[in-house]
Amino acid sequence: MNSRIAFVAFNTFREAVRDRVLYNLIAFALLISAGAILVGEISIDVERLVVVNLGLTAVSLFGVVIAIFIGIGLVSKEIEKKTLYTVLSRPVRRWEFVVGKFFGLTGTLIVNTFFMAIGVFLALLYVAHRLQPSDLSVLTALYFIVLELLIVVALALFFSSFSTPLMSAVFTFALFVIGSLAEDLRGFARIISGFTGIVASGMAYLVPNFSAFNIINQAAHGDAVPGRMILYNTLYALLYSAMAISGAVLIFQRRNLK
Amino acid sequence: MAAIEILDLEKTYMVGFWRKRPKLALRPLRLKVEEGEVFGFLGPNGAGKTTTLKLLMGLVSPTSGTARILGLELGDPRVSSQIGFLPEQPYFYDHLTAQELLTYYAQLSGIPDRDRSSRVALMLKRMGVEGSADVQLRKFSKGMLQRVGLAQAILHNPKVVFLDEPMSGLDPMGRREVRELIQELRSEGKTVFFSTHILSDAEALCDRVAVIHQGELRGVGTVANLTSRSKGTVEIIFCAPKVPSALNAISSETRASGEMVNAVISQEQQETVLDILRRERIRLISLTQVRTSLEEFYVEQLRPKGTGAGVGA
Amino acid sequence: MNSSRRVSAVASIVLLASMACCMVTLQAIDRLRTRPVIQQSLYLRSGKLLRRLSLGYTGLLADVYWTRAVQYFGYQHHRNSNDFRLLAPLLQITTELDPHLIPPYQFGANFLAQKPPNGAGMPNEALTLMKYGIEHNPDNWRLYYNLGFLYYTEFKDYAKAADAFTAGAKLPVTNGFMPVLAARMAQHAGEFDTARMLWYTTYQSINDGAIRDNAVKHLAALRVDEDITHLEELVQKYRAQMKRQPESIADLERVGFIHGMPTDPNGKPYRLAPDGRIEVEDSELIPYITKGSPSSNGSSANIASGTPTAP
Predict the structure, then answer these.
(1) ipTM of the complex
(2) List of chain A residues whose C-beta atoms are within 8 Å of the C-beta of residue B91
(3) What is the pTM of this model?
(4) Domain boundaries, chain C
């Protein structure tokens, strides 16, 4: 059973790479190089700030777009185009397929982010000429972005299990936007009293909460992140992904593949 | 033990915006296929052939009824290692090469590591695509894709092979190759269940066929049995310079080309005509019963219900 | 079918379990987070810049900042912190994003000016905010009310307060108290009744829970101040008549100056201190009083605002 999941994961990774997903790195590299070079014209103090802000924001945004694309493309597309039939007629269980896909997609995103990270640090070196200990927070910020992408991909998989490619992309993106505002949503919910307040609170908790993952500004200012926060965030990302994936498994189990 | 037992398998889809309108895809189907048989599943498009196959593959869940493959219930995980499936117009991972695809399928089918590459190479060779083993599938022609599809269906040496329209889109050469493959599979003792709407293939290959139309089974049996309902006529071929006048009166159809004469007479008049021929000392070449062709049987079953009764065997 | 059902069962359990754990983890994250949220909110202080960044969704962003302002205030209060520095920029950003949102102005009038721990202690910023509000909402009587309120309670500038109330009274849609308050400013500004009217109007016309609570506390303090002033007058009168200091409030009752033992809004009796002053038993419970706190000069923590100067 475990090896089948691994096989599916590896194949997903290979398919994504061959599908030229990683070419987005070229666009990213161009963007960040241009940014770093332009920034060289500004005063020294702000350079680092701008490069980190620009770089990390680009990693995050590119990452989310890629995550949605491959999450949808590599699952909805498979269902629509029937590549799935010959796979499922084999001893692979449906849930193994979903989980394997998830791992494959995650692997792709991690590799993608890794290359982007190298780009960011190179740009940083270029403008600041050396790395400081406070740059560790950049690493943490990157790690948090990866956690964010984990959740996005899990959501994309979840929606793909029952929806068309287009709608899945829309829903996932919508949840990403809502999730970025989730903290404020919960603040709103606390002010409203009564039944609506409870419902609003419930929704605000159910939605993925991305606010804690976005420490780009903090990284730019070189602020350290408490170890407990790293632990909690990791836990939250894993739990939320587990939630979305088990939802996907449940739906996919019963789905009629017309 | 029967290879495939379909017990009142039924499927109704709910369609419409609110999923409230029922659409009957397959009426309760009862069918049995023995091991080692080559079984043809005939019917026009939309008759329910693909639905049946999908039900058997577990891609779609039945509204009611069940089926057993090699004695195991549908959904039993042990089934999947014993069966192979080629869907209609298959589509594979574009960016993999033929070899990578088959290796992937081999992995999923649980073929042990050490056997994998040799088995894959064997399949590629058998299906005649070893030359394109390292070419990405998106560059393959339809015929080649079909061959790869067949390769993945028999890669793990399954006991029962399910093929959905295996000849579709193939040129005559390709079709012949598929026919030969099916015959090879039969000689290996495998059971082959395939759906098609090309009757000549069914006639040539199948031990038994079933005709399905509008979700309903219209007839099952050997080709011989299904077409044995003769029209009650006999065809006589003989050699004579001219047709005896007595014969002309009796026969409904007479054709002559050179000295060979073809005449169709009713079965009751058979003796009478033979007497005539003996009297005239005319050389009899052959006397055969006229059978309906499979095509006629098929077309008749496809007529709206009430005009042609289904035949079971 | 069995294995399929087993998979569904396991998946359901995992789903529910992870959902529950998610919520718990989220709450833990929240506890670590509250400070960073506010600091993050204020990395960008320019309202104009935020306007542009919001891609036109200024209303939503204004609501977001307003919520943060309220939460920030509540959080600092909860922690008994005296530091409300960030309230002013939060309110400023909110009103720059949406100048027509009225609650921030009301909140600012009540809590920006008051000294800590009840407010941010920034009366000038509060004034600027009110003027900004009036500039963008010239027909809203509430803003004139808030302005007059500010002048009265924080700046003790009764003339300007009167002007504000008068201007507000002239609007087509206004509150019945406005002309009355305007009139009172002129002549009876320093009196208890005027202050009471002002706080009562605040209590009546504004819906925000925090603001109303605040008004109630001020009204209670007013009552205490009134009581104490009255009692101290009676002590003077006693001394004049009896040629000596009364020993306790009971003495006042014995000579018929008062009937029954007077109590503060919490039900505790007033005490007579050796130096002739009247005191409340526990001034911690009644913020905002100017008289009657046991530490003699009435200075330190509970500095009052909104009470009139002694006549």
Answers:
(1) 0.85
(2) 81-83
(3) 0.73
(4) 26-111
